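Tip: read the tokens left to right.
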């Protein structure tokens, strides 16, 4: 479908100016007199937390629609309103077709009943008749791979078995709209692959609609056609899934950086230290910070600054380490080849080539080391390092540069030998 083509598919979910708030108790009156005094003082006894503010969007039949946002953004509350668990203060939700919610693992399951009984109980809670559940039962059990355990009580199931059964009931239920909240990480690796295949099949069915809430931006880019990003109860990005995923990544980087710096400051205060972890009177400043956007979408080298302060009359150098935060491990270390000449408070700018590595989440750390004997590298001493609050995180999101491993195809080519 072209950008300006008319989409004639029916709207199966319409969220129209929805708002939701919760009342949080602050001061409880212990009697009628106290209640009257509170009323005369204008004390309500509660505060209002506005979780959702004027949310509007549409989902059409056949969409694989993503809803993303950090914890506390309001996305789970939105799903519960869509699933008619909560009622909004303002606005309305219109659903066309049968909606099957899967909000939390195990909701509607009774540990004292058998797996078979729980399938029928959960199906009834979802609004299916016994005849409809009969028709779905074999598919549910086969997908969950629990054929030999269905007559055992659920309390005897492992947590993984319970997850597989609950998820299987949700996705095998013959609904028109499937609402899934944080389910891509359920089960073992083999079951996750089965779920991946299920989603791939669902994407090909124009009559089925899936609404997915997830923290996995890989899942958003792989499965979703459209998405929205919710922040502080409002939609900040809507439509293009890649824009939504990239903005979410950027928001995460900003929040993580702020949290790290706040945590470092709090630790310093509580422990009475003059200098944060990794610093001292000899090196009171050492910090790595981005010169370019922390969300990298091109192969241009990534530029960053290192701030340091050092005044001693001894040779010294910086080391830089690149860490892979997603796959784990040290990617690159500069060793002792970044010797510095300028003393005092200084800022050094570097650029990091990105040609060899796949998309991922990375961290740059720095150390400042002295070299008392310039002819002997083994004489070096660590003077300072950057903790996580003073390191630089960035995300690589270059189109066509995805891969399970670290090195991309252009830098690592395997040749077959005849």
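Filled-in amino acids:
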């Amino acid at each position: 479908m072209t950008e300006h083509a008319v989409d004639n598919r029916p709207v199966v979910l319409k969220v129209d100016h929805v708002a939701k708030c919760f009342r949080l108790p602050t001061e409880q009156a212990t009697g009628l007199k106290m209640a009257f005094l509170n009323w005369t003082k204008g004390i309500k006894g509660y505060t209002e937390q506005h979780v959702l503010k004027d949310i509007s969007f549409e989902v059409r039949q056949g969409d694989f629609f993503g809803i993303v946002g950090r914890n506390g953004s309001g996305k789970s509350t939105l799903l519960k309103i869509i699933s008619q668990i909560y009622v909004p203060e303002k606005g309305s939700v219109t659903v066309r077709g049968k909606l099957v919610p899967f909000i939390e693992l195990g909701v509607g399951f009774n540990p004292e009943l058998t797996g078979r009984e729980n399938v029928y109980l959960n199906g009834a809670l979802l609004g299916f008749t016994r005849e409809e559940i009969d028709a779905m039962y074999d598919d549910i059990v086969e997908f969950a791979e629990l054929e030999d355990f269905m007559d055992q009580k659920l309390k005897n199931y492992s947590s993984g078995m319970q997850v597989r059964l609950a998820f299987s009931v949700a996705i095998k239920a013959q609904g028109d709209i499937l609402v899934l909240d944080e389910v891509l990480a359920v089960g073992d690796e083999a079951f996750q692959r089965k779920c991946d295949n299920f989603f791939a099949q669902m994407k090909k069915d124009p009559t089925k609609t899936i609404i997915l809430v997830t923290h996995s931006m890989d899942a958003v880019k792989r499965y979703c056609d459209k998405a929205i990003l919710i922040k502080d109860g409002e939609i900040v990005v809507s439509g293009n899934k890649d824009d939504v995923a990239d903005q979410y990544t950027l928001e995460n980087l900003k929040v993580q950086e702020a949290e790290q710096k706040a945590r470092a400051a709090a630790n310093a205060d509580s422990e009475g230290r003059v200098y944060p972890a990794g610093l001292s009177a000899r090196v009171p400043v050492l910090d790595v910070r981005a010169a370019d956007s922390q969300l990298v979408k091109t192969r241009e080298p990534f530029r960053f600054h290192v701030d340091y302060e050092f005044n001693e009359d001894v040779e010294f150098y910086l080391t830089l380490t690149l860490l892979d935060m997603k796959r784990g491990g040290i990617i690159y270390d500069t060793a002792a080849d970044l010797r510095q000449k300028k003393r005092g408070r200084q800022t050094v700018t570097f650029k990091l080539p990105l040609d060899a590595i796949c998309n991922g989440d990375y961290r740059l750390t720095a150390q400042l080391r002295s070299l008392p004997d310039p002819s002997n590298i083994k004489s070096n001493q660590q003077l300072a390092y950057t903790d996580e609050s003073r390191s630089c995180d960035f995300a690589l999101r270059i189109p066509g540069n995805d891969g399970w491993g670290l090195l991309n195809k252009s830098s690592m080519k395997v040749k077959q030998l005849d």
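The longest strand covers residues 11-25. The two ends are 45 Å apart (CA to CA).
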